[in-house]
Amino acid sequence: ESVKFASAENIPELPDDYSGNLEGVNSDCPTEYLKRINLTGKPPNILVYVGSDPKKVKFEEIKSIITECVDFNSYTVYQLLEKQVLSVPWLDNALLLIIATSEPISDTLSKQFLTFMSKGGKILGLSATFTFGGIRVKRKNELIDTI
């Protein structure tokens, strides 16, 4: 809800590596006209991968939440189907990939996701088993009595 209230106050979004200042900017300029700067040059697409689940229910739930968090006039949210990961040229056409599946992700798909990251894309994992390289996710009870 804090994100919802922040957007209600028209707080401008800044890129992660914003290092500039507002010198020389007319202070009469309303913040509603400030738009997020796309530094990667990628189209403002957000893709949601929900695994092999053929139903659109999970995708629609995630899309609903995402559109509350981002400017829906600036970003478009699409579902990335499992069969499209290797066949559709999405790697250069998205800013963010949301992985929302508890299913194991095959090595082939993992390589595509890592390629996406190497091209400047961002990944957000929601309850996903997808990991990067040698990083492994363990349950909390597996870590008890370990250093």
UniProtKB/TrEMBL annotation:
One of its GO terms (cellular component) is cytoplasm. GO terms for molecular function: biotin--[biotin carboxyl-carrier protein] ligase activity. PANTHER family: BIOTIN PROTEIN LIGASE (PTHR12835), BIOTIN--PROTEIN LIGASE (PTHR12835:SF5). This is Holocarboxylase synthetase.
